[in-house]
Amino acid sequence: MQIVLALALVSGASAFTSSLSAVRQQWRGGWTNNCATHCRHSRSARSALFMMDVVECDVAIVGGGPAGCTCALYTSRADLKTVVLDKNPSIGALAITSHIANYPGVDKTMTGQELLDQMRQQAIDYGTDYRRSQVFMIDVEDGDGQKYSKTVYTPEATIKARSLVLATGAMGRVSPPFPGEEEYLGQGVSYCATCDGAFYRDSEVAVFGMNLEAMEEAMFLTKFASTVHWITPSEPHAEDDVHVKDLLDQPNVKHWPKTRLLSVEGDVSGVTGVHVKQKEQENDIIIPVEGAFIYAAGGGSKPITDFIQNKVAFKEDGGVIVNEDMETSVKGVFAIGDIRNTAFKQVVVAASDGCIAAMSIDKYLKGRKNVKVDWIHK
To answer: What is the pTM (predicted TM-score) of this model?
Structure first.
């Protein structure tokens, strides 16, 4: 099913952007980051028409790590239509682990990425609809499992679900924002090229960061921007990384290696440039740009919950509160894995959370009093 969503972008602020302002102001980095339509104050009024898919499912899972994939495996095996929304399968805690030595039954030479790939494929083989997509907002209501009371918003589609699982982990950015980053958030500062890239057609933009996410977002921006200024704090090695080589091969990419981002500059119209300092240069400079896409180094430990806002209850340490069934304060919404911010941040624990949530969801959606096991003794 499709709906037509018309966005009237008038004098620098769209209704869509305004409705997401609360989300944007809470961003501190992480799996989802926040993304909303950017619109410069100085640009003329215009209208854009977007075709957005609406997908209905029994279970929507935000996050494609070991918790999310395990949950999807179980719900799919239970014949529940399951959609997994995963921002990037290569940047989570498991994916960046070089070797897995303490997961039962796994050879110690296996990498975290290999294990995660197998988990994902297993869920897909049982019918999971896996989508690589960035979630920027959710709407939830207490439900009885009979109606689509949970809504998940992505740039490509709106997901309507009977139940929702939050599984975005705890690798959120903990470093403070750069000067000007919060001030111009939504006025040139962005964390989602997929969402905002088209608004920078024939403009110059800056991308800060040298992780995989930064490189993929910079590559996406090359389709629109006249020049993509790629700013990296150190010198990436093109000979060792195909992503680096591919990006540097683009004719409209200007690389600034060994360069620190000092601040984001702007005025009432929005971002006008980024203030940087090159290691081998005496003076710092301002690169004139209209957009600044900031992807600071990963490896944080903050639960990634920015897209949730205050829709569920949180602990003081930022973790999502759940009961023994992994259910949050909202009926039909579950949270699993490191997003709970427990002391036991292990793959096997995340997978266990996913199993518990899936069996609880099956009981919830099918109106059972007891959990149904996923095996039969013969």
So the answer is: 0.74
